[in-house]
Design brief:
The chain has about 50 residues and is mostly helical. The chain has a domain at about 1-10 and about 20-40. Helices cover about 70% and strands about 0% of the residues. It contains 2 helices and no strands. Helix 1 runs antiparallel to helix 2. The longest helix has 22 residues, at about 20-40.
Length: about 50
């Protein structure tokens, strides 16, 4: 999710589409939150690990 967010963020910045930039930023933040919660051993959405 973080990689997809980075790709969309870069494409949005290069092309100048603010919607892609916004969606990419949101995906990066959500992916980072899920990664941190999963790394601490906390079950997120019934799963121990998010890949």
């Amino acid at each position: 999710m973080i990689v997809l967010g980075l790709i969309l963020l870069l494409i949005g910045m290069l092309v100048g589409v603010s919607l892609l930039t916004t969606v990419g930023g949101i995906l990066i933040v959500v992916g980072a939150i899920l990664w941190v919660l999963g790394a601490t051993g906390r079950a997120v959405g019934g799963r121990k690990h998010y890949f």
